[in-house]
From TrEMBL:
Protein's name in the database: AAA+ ATPase domain-containing protein
GO CC list: cytoplasm
A Pfam family recorded for this sequence: CDC48_2
Domain CDC48: 137-204
PANTHER family the UniProt entry points to: AAA-FAMILY ATPASE, NUCLEAR VALOSIN-CONTAINING PROTEIN-LIKE
Biological source species: Aegilops tauschii subsp. strangulata
């Protein structure tokens, strides 16, 4: 038939080869798209050497549980991790902790790629050195206290040039992978790998700190933090989104809540995670007895922020410099409120500057500041619930050696009404109590005093 003739005409070896090539290209393109993953904060596993991906995504990439993967970040920065499935990590997302994000120079919501390592081998020897400012005052053996417990039986992958944070001995120490033998970019530290840590500590210089405050350090405020990230991260990192839909990005966010609830902590975490310049203004500090100097200080802060955009200006205790003008009798306060209104109104829509204000007395602020176009959103940073308190306790005790009898869930349940600062004080007081109980056996004159495990 005519149909058979057409099929014979086009079903030649050449045609089949072209179709096969196209199919392979299509599969490769699909796999390449699957490789592109959105960075998420690690929730269930805070291990430096682990990345979590959904089981389906791992299947598409032919990656199995425990495989070593190469993660490619920004500006040619790569690292290696062990892939573990996490079915709560939906879609094309990958969860890594703050240490891995820092090594990759990526932040939460950035896009990066993941590739299976076919050539990750056990290393004979790795040279690892601490960073100078994190070992200051430590007199003990770094290998025994930090590196040995970190690497023993863990079969951790490491990448040359990476920094990693090790918690132990009541302190955290940062280390850098200096050399790998044989000379490769990455390897697995096995049971018989020699870990060499002799040499002068690495100077901080251009190395980024791994213990800067990030989203991992903010606990007990899931919804407020998500909302703040939407309102701050999008305008600072993706301003083109607002431009494309023809609206102006938000200019300001007003945080209110009881003292110690974490308002300043949130602002610092957002600034660090977005890479924004952070300018802190403490309300009372800006006041001056000289006429016009307070307004001048405020203007300089805004000028500095615009010069270093993208920026976040954080005004702590904003009620002290912008009180309700109808209720205040001071001329200086009235002028500062007027100056702040002018500065916020005068900010260019595309200046990439966000103003955040914090107070525990929201009704004391001048109403003109609270309207749309100035502080666009007001967010309540309230007292955390039981789940939130447990998050905060886990954050504050992650560097502590806890007794087996310590049950954080019970403590979270019993600390109703505690804010983050109260829980931090509770953890510190518990540690001090342990020291008080052992004061009779501690020799304070001993220069090499080391904490007992």
């Amino acid at each position: 038939s005519a149909l058979d003739n057409i099929q014979r005409k086009y079903n030649t070896p050449e045609t089949q080869r072209i179709e096969q090539t196209e199919a392979m290209a299509s599969t490769a393109a699909s796999k390449k798209a699957a490789n592109r993953l959105v960075v998420e904060e690690a929730t269930t596993n805070d291990d430096n050497s682990v990345c979590n991906v959904h089981h389906d995504t791992m299947e598409k990439l032919s990656i199995y549980k425990g495989d070593i993967v190469l993660l490619k970040g920004k500006r040619r920065h790569n690292t290696v991790c062990m892939a573990l499935p996490d079915d709560t990590c939906e879609g094309h997302k990958l969860r890594i902790n703050k240490v891995a994000r820092s090594n990759l120079r990526v932040r939460i919501a950035d896009v990066m790629s993941e590739h299976l390592c076919h050539d990750a081998k056990f290393s004979r020897r790795v040279h690892i050195l601490p960073l100078d400012d994190t070992v200051e005052g430590i007199a003990g053996n770094l290998f025994d206290v930090y590196l040995k417990p970190y690497f023993v039986d863990a079969y951790r992958p490491v990448h040359k040039g990476d920094l990693f944070l090790v918690r132990g001995g009541m302190r955290s120490v940062e280390f850098k992978v200096m050399e790998i033998d044989p000379a490769v970019e990455y390897c697995i530290v096995a049971a018989d790998t020699e870990i060499f840590c002799e040499g002068e500590p690495v100077k901080r210089e251009d190395e980024e700190r791994l213990d800067d405050i990030g989203y991992d350090d903010v606990g007990g405020m899931g919804k407020p933090l998500t909302l703040i990230r939407e309102l701050v991260e999008l305008p600072l990192r993706h301003p083109q989104i607002f431009k494309s839909i023809g609206v102006k990005p938000p200019k300001g966010i007003h945080l209110y809540g009881p003292p110690g609830s974490g308002k300043t902590l949130i602002a610092r975490a957002v600034a660090n995670e977005t890479g924004a310049f952070f300018f802190l203004i403490n309300g009372p500090e800006i006041m001056s007895k000289m006429v016009g100097e307070s307004e001048s200080n405020l203007r300089k802060a805004f000028e500095e922020a615009e010069k270093n955009a993208p920026s976040i200006i954080f005004i702590d205790e904003i009620d002290s410099i912008a009180p309700n003008r109808e209720k205040t009798h001071g001329e200086v306060e009235r002028r500062i409120v007027s100056q702040l209104l002018m500065l916020m109104d005068g900010m260019k829509a595309r200046a990439h500057v966000i103003v955040m204000g914090a107070t525990n007395r929201p009704n004391s602020i001048d109403p003109a500041l609270r309207r749309f176009g100035r502080f666009d959103r007001e967010i309540d940073i309230s007292v955390p619930d039981e789940v939130g308190r447990l998050e905060v306790l886990r954050i504050h005790t992650k560097n502590m050696k806890l007794d087996e009898d310590v049950n954080l869930e019970v403590i979270a349940k019993d600390t109703h009404g505690y804010v983050g600062a109260d829980l931090a004080a509770l953890c510190t007081e518990a540690a001090l109590q342990c020291i008080r109980e052992k004061m009779d056996v501690i020799d304070l004159e001993d220069d090499t005093l080391m904490p007992r495990s």
